[in-house]
Design brief:
alpha/beta; 505 residues; 6-stranded mixed beta sheet
Length: 505
């Protein structure tokens, strides 16, 4: 029997205008956790879609071998029958259905034709939930679960199909640090039970903790496969990007000027629960600086910036002053006209129209600048979108490429282009590097530096503490909707920021 549960030989996959995979070879040993890393657009997800039957046999060249036998998957169901289960970054659960219904959706346990055996279904659901450490009622609605629990339900669903090879694509992107640690512990236990795992992540700390071996893809090609001991983070990063990253946070020295944005006693309530989300918050943003906002998940950081932009919450009290004039932003249109921009944390839901192309997305927030009498000037649209595609080094075959086909890092650049075209005075960046690789992160950081050099005030919300400390000139800390700390760059440390973020006395 082969030592490899999986071999992918000379896989090549092309899309119109782009070669996503070129002669890729990938081998996974039985019972190991094998990490697959690379920049956005390197081909990781495409390779896994080839493996799982999303891209059927015949749409690519090369061979897939499972336990030494050649496979020709035409559908996802065929790969599942062979023991392969893939869990994508965007969870494929029906939120209004129960845990049990989701786990056996499409593979219902029947006691007679057309009659579901609910007793057996609930017993089997409880069993697979136990394997992933979840003590939940199988009849609970998925919509009532946290994101971390939903991720574990997806894994339980895969185990219910007797998966021998489990593929996890960015499984911790939306999880808290505690939930992520719990997930990694569960993967360790599954490995001990003989489940083989392919783990895709941009969080290199997780990769070095969980993986036995690591394969690096770059530009659709296999660059290197090595044991974890031979692949420290520095080498991993260097191999992924094909160049030395002298520092992860290329901060430039900035000289703060006058206050451009002033927030005074800002209090906002959640429109659904009526709970106070931002409680008497006051601060200012100065020209020529990056202001970082730190805090734990649920602290109220996103609520703060979206309420200042006028698209969330019920304002109870407080004032917003921009360039010395009081601003009342009731909706995105007024905020944009006043000189505010907001890169939201969920680019696919709030930042982009995935079915539209690069140029259309780039100009969405500035249509009045390229229109006359309500008619868009197509030449001006191409000119402006093309300018920022070049400036931001967006990797796209053309401006007519659908944004949904771009990698996460390049989608984020299109979102940035959209807001730069509005010529903002203050740009809020909510989790600007979430779900993108280390090389693209450095590019985003350099764009932030360029914006500050051009006089734009940058306000960055981030859950990654090293990012906040590495890029900010000043740091604000929020805990349960209140401002609990403010630090100059020189005096900020991880310990001080976390002290304030946890509400410690």
């Amino acid at each position: 029997m082969s030592e490899f549960i999986l071999e992918m030989r000379n896989i090549t996959k092309e899309f119109p205008g782009v070669k996503a995979l070129e002669d890729v070879t990938f081998q996974v040993r039985t019972g190991e956790v094998h990490a697959l890393v690379g920049e956005n657009g390197a081909g990781k997800s495409t390779l896994m879609k080839v493996l799982s039957g999303v891209y059927p046999h015949g749409s690519y060249s090369g061979d897939i071998l499972l336990d030494g036998a050649v496979q020709r998957f035409g559908t996802i169901r065929e790969s599942e029958h062979a023991g392969i289960a893939i869990i994508f970054q965007e969870l494929a659960l029906v939120k209004q259905m129960t845990i049990a219904e989701n786990i056996f959706l499409g593979a219902e346990l029947r006691r007679a034709p057309g009659v579901i055996d609910w007793n057996r279904t609930f017993r089997e659901t409880a069993r697979v939930l136990g394997e992933v450490g979840l003590d939940l009622n199988p009849g609970a609605r998925v919509a009532d679960l946290g994101v971390g629990s939903q991720q574990l339900v997806e894994i339980a669903k895969a185990l219910s199909k007797n998966a021998r090879l489990l593929i996890l694509d960015e499984p911790t992107a939306a999880l808290t640090e505690r939930e992520a640690d719990n997930l990694l512990d569960i993967l360790d236990r599954l490995k001990q039970k003989g489940v083989t795992c392919i783990y895709i992540s941009h969080r290199l700390r997780e990769v070095t903790r969980i993986a036995d071996r690591i394969t690096v893809l770059r530009d659709g090609k296999t660059i290197l496969t090595a044991d974890k001991a031979a692949m420290p983070e520095e080498r991993m990063v260097r191999t992924m990007v094909g160049r030395e990253l002298t520092t992860m946070f290329p901060r430039r020295p900035h000289t703060a000027g006058e206050a451009v944005l002033q927030v005074k006693h800002w209090t906002v309530k959640n429109p659904v629960t009526d709970a106070v989300a931002c409680d008497d918050i006051s601060f200012d943003v100065r020209r020529g600086e990056i202001l970082g906002i730190a805090g734990l998940m649920g602290a109220g950081r996103t609520e703060l910036v979206t309420s200042l932009f006028g698209v969330w919450g019920h304002r109870q009290s407080g004032e917003l002053w921009l360039s010395g004039r009081r601003l009342v932003a009731e909706g995105a249109g007024q905020a944009i006209r006043a000189g505010l921009g907001l890169v939201s944390e969920d680019r696919k839901r709030y930042g982009l129209v995935l079915g539209m192309d690069v140029k259309q997305n780039s100009t969405l927030a500035s249509l009045k600048r390229i229109s006359r009498l309500g008619v868009i000037d197509k030449n001006e649209e191409i000119k402006r979108a093309g300018h920022y595609a070049r400036e931001l080094r967006t990797k796209t075959p053309s401006l007519e490429q659908r944004v949904g086909n771009l990698s996460g890092g390049n989608q984020q650049k299109v979102v940035l282009a959209k807001w730069l075209l509005t010529q903002p005075k203050v740009l809020f960046l909510d989790e600007p590097t979430r779900g993108i690789d280390v090389g693209a992160k450095v590019e985003i950081y350099n764009i932030m530096n360029d914006l500050v050099d051009q006089g734009v005030c940058v306000v960055m919300v981030s859950s990654e503490l090293p990012e906040v400390l590495g890029m900010s000139d000043r740091i604000l800390v929020i805990h349960e909707g209140r401002l609990t700390g403010a630090f100059a760059r020189e005096e900020a440390t991880q310990e001080k920021v976390m002290h304030c973020a946890t509400g410690a006395a």
